[in-house]
Amino acid sequence: MQRIHHPRREQIHLAGVLDSLSDPTRLEIVLRLDTLGEATCAEFLDACSKTNLTYHLRRLREAGVTRVSPIGTQRFTSLRRKDLDARFPGLLEMIIGFAREAASADA
Amino acid sequence: MQRIHHPRREQIHLAGVLDSLSDPTRLEIVLRLDTLGEATCAEFLDACSKTNLTYHLRRLREAGVTRVSPIGTQRFTSLRRKDLDARFPGLLEMIIGFAREAASADA
DNA sequence: CCTCAAGTCCAAGATCTGTTGAACTTTGAA
DNA sequence: TTCAAAGTTCAACAGATCTTGGACTTGAGG
To answer: For a pLDDT cut of 90, what percent of chain A falls above it?
Structure first.
């Protein structure tokens, strides 16, 4: 299995993070990661197709929002809280908070 | 001149705001609006073409980030701070802050 | 070895974005 | 009434984004 590329902390850019979080599907993924801690793709298959999921998870990873660690045939995705907080203190928590409000308002 | 449409406060959505701010040109516009308070298009003509500017200013307006008030042949654009802060307290200031850091790091 | 489950890769298509030039509208002032 | 300045509209285009189906890879277990 190919090396999975993650940007280094200093390579995480604001526009990229905002962009990756400006998609509803990805915002939903981030919300779930926030509650679950980490998750494999099975956790999101109700939200979109497998192929499509690979795409969205890649976007989040490339933006520096998530980290992916392969274990066996599975890949565990989690939020890069420390790195994001070093770079943009408070931003992730704030966005997650507002997104959660919005999500519960829909329900 | 046609009525200029602005979304109502409750119609401002997180994903829309993040999306409108995930473009470098628009982030730059927001930064300038933050310092200038309000501005006409003349203030941004060094950053992009007139036509293109209309496009970006429209995106910001439609996302609920800016308000536009026509005075004579000019249009004054300003940030909708109160509305944004009512909806997403602290978000705009935080993003502006990080964007400014990033901008000065480039220089 | 064979097979299954987890996930990726690839090519294609539909749609959305950002950008442009040329023509237009509106208003203020000469 | 004519003119210029401020800004919009429109059609067009290149490139990015999202989504899909089908074939593929990789690792674990029987």
So the answer is: 91
